[in-house]
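INFO batch 0412 | record 1 of 1 | parsing
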Amino acid sequence: MTAPVLISLSDALARLQAEPECYLVYDRNAAWVASSLMERLPVCGSLAIETSEEGKTLETVQSLERWLLQADATRGALLLAVGGGITTDLVGFAAAIYKRGIRYANFPTTLLAQVDAAIGGKTGVNLDGYKNMLGAFRMPEFTVLEASFLRTLPAREWRDGLAEMLKTFLIGDGSAYHQVITFMKNAQFLDATGFMDAIRRAAEIKADIVAADPEEHGERAKLNLGHTFGHAIEHEARLHGDDISHGEAVAMGIILAAGLSERLGVAQNGLSARLRADFAQAGLPADSPYPAEDLLEALRKDKKAAAGGKVKFVLLRAPGDVVLQELPYDCYLHTK
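INFO prediction complete | emitting tokens
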């Protein structure tokens, strides 16, 4: 598997001019980006999709596959994904299985996708309410980082992306983490152009980790910081009909991971309180609304779970310093 390729919009447009068979799939919320691309690219066909966690299913992928089949798309086709992380996950998975695999490229239009979801080749869909249970590793030809795509992003979606960005810096760059917190205090993070250096830095950290471990046999698992608890929180939210976004769940999951790290002696006491105060600067929630006991079933069924009921947790030593530790899925109940 090749390493992630991060390029500018202008470079992407230049590369695609010679492509004989491009198909474009876009989130309806990003229609204006799709229209702009179709005016400048030789696109054979386009398909608008509705995106939601509930619609991130095999049925949606099958409809996409039928569209490609009806369009006579060949194994030489290139599929362009325009939208957020749900779009790039769906389109990447569709590309991975159509005629045993075609190429795809990502044009992420959310901050969360530009710093995380659209990088690294993880594709997939949900199954029975559990996150990304079906999927494949399939690296995109490239991922575009473009500030103008973010200009209409609602504040809540900015915060979702910030949660993933902070997660990345907590894993690999403590200095960048503190810089972003300063941005938050001054509300500068709502300026996509001025924030582009931080976006590129987060994307590069993820790309470097993925390049070293493309199929998550070791080091790449660190990118799951906050996600083991976060996915369990999302599962509970769907069961209860609560409105909790992915980024919000990840933020809560990071705080839970920090608290577990303290109780296990991996981190010094006070880390979770410090992160909670930092996250408040961006309006990110810190505390899960569900008791730990209610998260256990989702933790047990986490796709990262191993035999014997153990899960590989990502624990924090300090900002920029994490460690992987395999623990019983119910460890959080027994470390208070």
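INFO post-check: The chain has two domains: 6-150, 155-334.
INFO record closed
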